[in-house]
Write a structure and sequence with these properties.
Helix content is 39%, strand content 16%. It has a 7-stranded mixed β-sheet with strand order 2-10-9-6-5-3-4, sandwiched between helices. A 3-stranded antiparallel β-sheet has the order 8-7-14, with no helix packed on it. With 404 residues, the protein is an alpha/beta fold. It is globular and about 75 Å long. The structure holds ligand T4K. Ligand T4K binds next to helix 3 and helix 4.
Length: 404
């Protein structure tokens, strides 16, 4: 029993029993109704049509295009492959400006095409690439811009569109987090030349692995479809450079199944978000991302900022949670510019992203999704509050633990 006079002793880092027997993950998949998925898989096996533009992929593409009010959805084997296709198909060249505060795949998709990522700093409120800073980075070598709708909140897509139009630059959005989101009544999917979704297992809607490029540009969509399938125009007829970026039928069956459950998943995410805000709101030193009235969000990530004035630093709080079996994550620490191969290639530039560095030190993601209950969240909030209220004792426990 936790002692009333020494409450910190109930924390696992101070010798208490972990609050959760099984690990609570940030990215536990939302799975939809299993029976419906298995029925679809049986149908796929009965038809013996497993991939290559099958009926389930087509149905899934139509549903995703409809959800985002765009003309075309080109489903891919992963979000990363979708980004690689988008970078190539839009004709990006030379240096490509993008934020460093993103999953490493955004930068790799550029470098994998032999292009040079140029990392731009973010604004501190929404963690989005700052269009004013992009403008300053544009040179005669610039051959494209990638904006990232980080945490599912749209970046300043309108400003980036205006800039890229003025400068004649291709513009792609990494919308890996932004399924079903909108900005000023405009759905994600129709901004820039194209936008790329991820359907990785950990995303709000998953196809096990998968992604999609969304666009309203007919010609670009045609090129993406060719490139996704080795450049084949017809039997024995290759008309374009290409790769194998196809989504398979089982992946699409999963996507359709989760899509049927999407309203419930979004409702759970929203309720979880509210629960965390209620449980941690007002705790000194902790912050949340702001809600904006002009945007629709999928609440897929619970992003807590552990500010410098908090009683524990982010990594200490994360250690406390991990000991309780709450596997909080510090996405996207330390920023792409501090990872290889970019840290070596851009050594001179690493100090030029002060806001990225600051945000990467503060962000902590907490578990959410349909696998996490509001009771779990209540307990997580109690742990966080207790750890911060008794920070000096907790810090001693952490130091003692490190010495063992
Ligand atoms: N752009 C952005 C902005 C992105 O965030 C991403 C992917 C991409 C592009 C690329 O899209 P993809 O090519 O992946 O479609 C994860 C995901 O692997 C990655 O898809 C995602 N972003 C990123 C934010 O998170 P890790 O290295 O943290 O994954 P992992 O395996 O540690 O999984 C996270 C947690 O989820 C773990 O605690 C365990 C749990 N989990 C994971 C899987 C795979 C499960 O419970 N079940 C599972 O099946 O990157």
């Amino acid at each position: 029993m936790p002692s009333a006079t020494e409450p910190w002793r109930s924390l696992a880092v101070c010798g208490g029993t972990p609050s959760f027997r099984e690990p609570l993950h940030v990215g536990r998949p939302n799975q939809g109704e299993r029976r419906r998925f298995l029925t679809r898989v049986n149908d796929i096996l009965d038809r013996r049509w497993l991939t290559n533009d099958g009926v389930y992929v087509r149905e899934f593409e139509a549903a995703i295009a409809d959800l985002h009010s765009v003309r075309h959805c080109v489903a891919t084997s992963s979000g990363t492959v979708g980004l690689e296709l988008a970078v190539r198909a839009t004709g990006m060249r030379g240096e490509v400006i993008l934020p460093s505060f993103t999953f490493i795949a955004t930068a790799h998709a550029v470098a994998w095409q032999g292009l040079v990522p140029v990392f731009c700093d973010i604004e501190p409120i929404g963690h989005h690439i700052d269009p004013a800073l992009v403008e300053r980075l544009v040179t005669h070598k610039t051959g494209g811009v990638i904006g990232v709708h980080i945490w599912g909140r749209p970046c300043d897509a309108v400003a980036l569109e205006a800039l890229c139009q003025r400068r004649g630059l291709p513009l792609v959005f990494d919308a890996a987090h932004a399924l079903g989101c909108s900005l000023d009544q405009r759905m994600i999917g129709g901004f820039g030349d194209c936008e790329v979704l991820s359907f990785h297992a950990t995303k709000v809607l998953n196809t096990l692995e998968g992604g999609a490029v969304l666009t309203n540009n007919d010609e670009l969509a045609g090129r993406l479809r060719l490139m996704r399938n080795f450049g084949f125009r017809g039997l024995d007829d290759v008309g374009h450079m290409g790769t194998n970026g196809k989504m398979n039928e089982v992946a699409a069956a999963m996507g359709l199944t989760v899509l049927e459950d999407l309203e419930r998943i979004l409702a759970v995410n929203r309720a979880n978000d509210e629960c965390y805000r209620a449980g941690l709101g007002g705790v000194p030193g902790l912050g949340f991302l702001p809600f904006e009235a002009n945007e629709r969000r999928n609440h897929q990530y619970i992003v807590v900022l552990v500010r410098p004035e908090a009683a524990l630093i982010r990594d200490e709080l994360m250690a406390v949670l991990h000991a309780e079996n709450v596997l909080a994550r510090r996405y996207f620490y330390p920023g792409c510019h501090r990872m290889e191969p970019y840290v070596s290639a851009t050594k001179r530039r690493t100090d030029l992203l002060p806001i990225t560095d600051e945000v990467a030190r503060q962000v902590l993601l907490l578990p959410t999704g349909t696998a996490v209950s509001t009771d779990d969240i209540g307990r997580i909030c109690e742990i966080v509050r207790l750890a911060l209220d008794t920070a000096h004792k907790v810090r001693s426990c952490l130091v003692a633990g490190d010495k063992e």
